[in-house]
Amino acid sequence: MPEAPSLYRRHRPRTFSQVVGQEHVVRTLRNAVQQNKVHHAYLFVGSRGTGKTSMAKILAACLNCENGPTVDPCGVCQSCIAIQNATSMDVIEMDAASNNSVDDIRDLRDRVSLAPVSGKSKVYILDEAHMLSSQAWNAFLKTLEEPPPNTIFVLATTEASKVLPTVVDRCHRFDFTRPTVGQLAQVVGRVAQEEHITIGDDAVALLARHATGSFRDALGTLEQMVTYSGTTITTEDVLAVLGIADADLLFGMMDAVASGDAAKTLRGCARLVNTGRDPMSFIRDLEAHARDLLVIQTLGEVPAEMRITTDRDQRIAAQAGRIGRAQVIRLLDLLAEAMRAVRDGADARTFLELALVKAAAPEVDPSTKAIAARLERLERAVNAGAGVSVAPPPITTPEPAPAAPEEPAGRFQRDPEPAPQPTAAATGAAAAVAAIPHPQVEVEPEPQEPVPAPPPPVPSVGMTLHDLLEVWPAVLDGVRERHALCAGLLSTAQPVALDAEMLTIAFPEDQEFLRRKAENPDMRVCLSEAMRAVTGASPQITYELRDFAAAAEAAGTPPPVPETGPEFIEKLMAAFDAEEIRPEDDAPKET
Q: In this record, what's one Pfam family (predicted)?
């Protein structure tokens, strides 16, 4: 007993009217057949399962039907049946992935010269055309450009960028779009009805979303479900076979993130793993769910391509109104980071839990904590009635070096000496010298590199030294992105005083060299920009030396342990691009 063909082969569209989507391709090919203007070469480009091969066979049936050429092939004549069963001598399908050598193309070129056997045209369907080698394409170019009469080539590919430009120029190109979830659900529902399969709307929606834009994948999954559960398919069956998260789990996880309940997210992950589902699949499902929320929040409605069922659409719209857009965007960033880590070999469950905990409890992330502290400070200032002016972004255009500061009054001040009066002899000599002609020599001034000016100071309204110390690691991270050497210097210092206009940063008393390096204008600008980015303020900065051990002893707190040892030496050598000179290197060598 011969095997029955698979679902997607049995329900492949046979006419243009049965094609779902691809209206631009259908209309162009239909007009070409009606007007007898069919081109000799077509290039069908699109992702897998979008109907490229089916469209090529429909075109072949339109040309070779006994009633044709016609846009509505009968489907019952000998030619139509042979094309449907892939037994037609006039429609040749060739897989370029396994027949990509020059010899294969030469054999094809020799067969092209033969006339059609029973139909009116010979149609060659070359699938995965991008797999042909450059030598094979060069051997095929002349035949593709000037084929024999009534010979048509249809090249199908998923990667048009790998097809030679000389080949693309000889073809009429059609780009097949990916079907929407609604179109996939429409096809799955129609096939289920024709096959007498009972399946609910929620299960159809899950199958359509899991197909990721492929008709073939959607019908293949439906056939797999029939094998698993028979002709009655429930939503639980789909979840069990595909291993995807159900809607309740996705909605519950997003609500836990929105409410800041990190413990609930961990319990949800444990329940997910206990049911045997793949954490990586759940990361992708949660990413798709969060993306839907972001789109709905931005558009203000559920777009047509996202609509599945009325209940689900209302539920996701309500959740999009409850959750802040910033939370959704942050969750998407964390999930993308988790997927990168898993691809690099990390544990999927660990990084899923890490992403959810960070999203639900943003205070565990230093950078997010810094932003939250800045917003809290601004809110306190607004509530207190202080006028806070938001400073514009720093100007990066270099400015001329500032003029040398004038000597302050009261320090080493003395009366100006009168200029000496020239004598008569000196005046006469000067006049004689001036009378002698001298060539004019233009001396160009030496170019001076402009020193970037620090951004204008912004008062630190409402910010205390304690607040700054909490976000100081985030400030150092910002400095490190701009100037690695400056970050290395500041890692040995710490803020010790802060008022509305002045920030004092202290270095250990034996680090005078590091303090002088930190006075560099470039490093001052770098620190000011990092302070402004994290805290919203950039007060004037002054550096000093301080005995941290004595200060801690006076305050009754243990002094901070200075960073020493080989690792600190290596860090300093890397920061200053230095090398170690050992005493034995300088000792005179014995002869």
A: DNA_pol3_delta2
Output the pLDDT for position 44.
94
Can you list the positions of beta strands (E) in 489-570? 494-498, 502-508, 540-546
Q: Report, in this order, helix, strand and coil percent for the chain, each rounded to 5.
A: 55, 10, 40
User: What architecture does CATH give domain 7-175?
Assistant: 3-Layer(aba) Sandwich (3.40)
Round to whole Å and give the CA distance between 78 and 579: 86
13 close to 83: Cβ distance less than 8 angstroms: no
Reduced 3-state DSSP string for 213-256: CCHHHHHHHHHHHHHHHCCEECHHHHHHHHCCCCHHHHHHHHHH
Q: Identify whether the C-beta of residue 213 lies closer than 8 Å to the C-beta of residue 47.
A: yes
Closest to 303 measured CA to CA, from 317, 288, 318, 284: 317
- What is the predicted pLDDT for the residue at 499? 80
Answer yes or no: CATH 1.10.8.60 is held by domain 181-242: yes
- Residue intervals of the chain classified under CATH 1.20.272.10 are 247-364
Calpha distance 294→252 (Å, rounded) = 17
Strand partners, 91: 123
List Cβ neighbours of 254 (8 Å cut-off, separation of 6 or more): 286, 289, 290, 293, 319, 323
**Nearest of 488, 533, 218 to residue 390 by alpha carbon:** 533
Q: Using CA atoms, how far apart are residues 328 and 258, in angstroms rounded to an integer?
A: 9
Helices (H), 73-124: 78-84, 102-112
Distance CA(575)–CA(567), nearest Å, equals 12
For residue 155, what pLDDT is reported? Answer: 92
**The CATH number of the domain covering residues in 247-364:** 1.20.272.10
Structural Rg of the chain based on CA atoms: 38
Cα torsion angle, 436, 441, 442, 445, sign: negative
Whole-number Cα distances in Å, 489 to 296, 351, 457, 482, 515: 47, 33, 22, 13, 8
With a cut of 70, which residues of the chain have pLDDT below it? 1-4, 243-245, 308-309, 365-462, 549-569, 571-572, 574-578, 582-591
Parts of the chain belonging to CATH 3.40.50.300: 7-175
Classify 465-576 by CATH class. Answer: alpha beta
CATH 3.30.300.180 domain span(s) along the chain: 465-576
Residues for the chain: how many in total? 591
Strand order in the sheet with 494-498: 494-498, 502-508, 540-546
Contacts of 490 (CB under 8 A, 6+ apart): 476, 479, 505, 518, 527
Residue 371 is predicted with a pLDDT of 66
- pLDDT for residue 448: 52
Are 503 and 539 within 8 A, CB to CB? Answer: yes
In contact, 500 and 526? CB cutoff 8 Å: no
State the pLDDT at residue 550: 66
Which amino acid does the sequence have at 170? R
Q: 359 near 257, Cβ under 8 Å? A: yes
The CA distance from 237 to 231, in Å, is 12
